[in-house]
Design a protein that fits this description.
This protein is an all-alpha fold. Strands 1-2 form a two-stranded antiparallel sheet. The protein starts with a helix and ends in an 8-residue tail after the last helix.
Length: 232
């Protein structure tokens, strides 16, 4: 679509924007990546860079060093498992709630975890689809990564602690016990984050009364998670 020199520059810019989960595009016209929503190579390359950057540098080094899931540290196992589950569930829910392709559903499931690229107009999404994106944006990427949010490890600890309380079993993951202080920290981080989002949402509801509540909540969580997606 562009002369070689310009195409190379655009490719370098977007590669860095994807790996660093910043989501800036230089296509112009507020189109983001909508013109390339069916381009398989561009979509999957961008998704790979976003996921790779969002895993965290400790996890990347661990993967390069051990090359086997069994040999990975507990942190790496937690991050990889949670990431895969969130991507899969996010893709299924977005496909079920929106009239988009499977490729589009997967791309937005990846991008919502703090990257901010979009191949479909977010403003056209239903409230159900926006709510799915809000949850993904709030959870975000992983510790020591280029992404934001409360982090996948925090979310994992919360889920596992609830499961432990319901089943009345010891709190553990991958045959390793989790210290009680880690659970406390996860709850504190989550509660403080929810408090920040609630206060900001309340203030914007007062300052922008013409906007829908879901739109306001979406913008707040998008900013909190350093995602950058917008309904317009």
């Amino acid at each position: 679509d562009y002369p070689f020199g310009q195409a190379l520059w655009i490719s370098i810019f977007h590669s860095i924007a994807a790996f660093n989960n910043s989501g800036f595009d230089i296509f112009g016209g507020l189109r983001n990546m909508i013109p390339y929503q069916s381009d398989i190579l561009l979509n999957f390359t961008t998704c790979f860079l976003i996921i790779f950057g969002g895993l965290g540098f400790l996890v990347i080094l661990d993967i390069l060093k051990n090359r086997s899931f069994k040999k990975l540290t507990l942190h790496s196992k937690v991050v990889i498992t949670t990431t895969v589950i969130l991507l899969a569930v996010g893709t299924l829910l977005l496909k079920a709630t929106e009239n988009i392709s499977w490729l589009g559903a997967f791309f937005h499931s990846v991008s919502a975890r703090t990257a901010g690229f979009s191949t479909y107009s977010i403003g056209d999404f239903t409230n159900a689809g926006l709510f799915v994106l809000i949850i993904l944006m709030f959870i975000g990427a992983s510790p020591g990564s280029t992404g934001g949010g409360i982090k996948t490890s925090t979310f994992f600890v919360l889920v596992q602690s609830v499961r432990s309380l319901v089943t009345k079993k010891n709190f553990e993951a991958f045959h390793r016990s989790i210290p009680a202080d880690r659970i406390s920290k996860a709850y504190v981080i989550s509660l403080l984050s929810i408090l920040v989002v609630c206060i900001a949402t309340f203030l914007l509801c007062i300052l922008e009364p013409d906007l829908d509540f879901v739109q306001i909540l979406f913008e707040v969580v998008s900013a909190f998670g350093t995602v950058g997606l917008s309904t317009g």
